[in-house]
Each structure stands twice: as structure tokens, then as C-alpha cells.
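QA checklist item 7 of 12: single-chain prediction sanity check.
[x] sequence parsed
[x] length recorded as 252
[x] structure emitted
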Amino acid sequence: MNPQSLAARLHAARAQVTIVHVGDDLPAGIDDAYAVQAEILRLGADAVAAWKVTGLRPQDQPGYGADRPVAGPLMARFVHDSHAVLSLSDFITPMLECEFALRLARDLPQRAVPYTLEEIAAAIDAVVPAFEIGDGRVPAGAPGVLRLADSMGNGAFIIGAPVPWTGQDLDAASVTLTLDGIPVGDGGGARIWGGPLAAVQALANAQPLSAPLLAGQIVTTGSATVPLALTHPVEAVADFGPLGLVHLQLRA
């Protein structure tokens, strides 16, 4: 597997909104997948604005060719403020997720001694309510290591107003999703394995990634609601209670 070649194909596929078929030319494991991610970042010439972490449960990690949690970088141009207006035509198979995200107040460099939960809490300055639109440039059912190489299947990330971090109990926090004013689902931080704060800790301790964890970046911790397929134009609102609202308008 040539990381540069696969990265070029995935980078082009995102711009062209097409699927990449790679056959058996797959990343051999997490290191190969991160090498592809790093090359995509280089080709995109864009900053990493956020990270999505997954594979928090040990039993899920081998599916990504890994022995630790894994993550995909979210480039700045795919991160939008609340009330964003996006087009269905920019996505292949978009899935909408409501997510609890946390913003880093300082760098979290790779180190030999694992970060404690208390250190992670001290390194955060805001809670960010968010939507993620999951999407992928690889076929449905593709191996996890290929989905990891494809920026972990990110399509877009829509963020609400940051709320100052005061140690809120995000495990107990809730969210309600409405589409065109109709409630369609709810969820909460309890859906995240270990909880949202522990997900950031897991990410910090799972380095190296395809780029460093830096102050100002946002870590989104997984879907707090059942992911919903977006198949037609819709106005979506996620109500995170005291953490605020996130709005998204999706056009044809």
C-alpha cells in the first residue's frame, strides 16, 4: 500500500463526491492509516480544527487494525458554525449525529506517562455542542482500517457556541434532536463509552496520531444519539439544554 497514492485518491474523491474502490490495496494497520491521513492533510493544506475519536471499547479496536482508540482529523474548511447551510450534493451517504465535544486549552503532547482524567479536565476550556455529518469516500462495509485512513468518515462538523468548562457532568447531559420541528430522537453523554471526558483522555493516551493535539482544537467524542440518514432537505436542531442549541439547514 502506497500512502501517498491512496491519500491522493481519497483527497480527490472528497472533492468529487465519489467513492474510491481500492481492492486489496489496503492499509496494513493503524500506522499506515495515519500515514494516509497525514498525507491528506498535506494535500489539503489546511489546519486540523478538530478530532473525532472512536474505538473506545477495546473489543472494537482490532477492527481498525489497532490496539488502542483511533481518531480522524477534521480539517478547518469542513468545520462550520451553527446555522450553517449545507448541500446534500456535497455528501455521498450522510448520517447526522449529535455530539458532545470539548475544546483544548493547551497542547497535549505524546508522552510516556498516561494522562490522568484530572489532567485532561484541567486542559479543557469549553464544552462545544455539535453535529457531525458522517460520510465516507469508501464503500459501505469497507474494512475499518480503510475508513480510518479516510479521515474516519467525516463529512462535516457543525459547532454551537462554546460553553465555559466548569467540570459539568457530561455523562448525565442530554440532547434532543428535531427535524423540521418534529422530535426524532434523544440521547446523552451516557451513550459515550466511559463518558465524553474519558474519551478525550483516551485520545490523548492513544498518540501518536496523524498530527499533534494542540490548544484550540476540538475533540468530538462520538454520537450521543442514534445516527440518522439524511436523504432529503431538512432543518435540524439539536437541543443540548443548558449547553445550548445547534442549527443546521440542509439543502438539495
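[x] summary fact logged: The longest strand covers residues 124-134.
[ ] second reviewer sign-off
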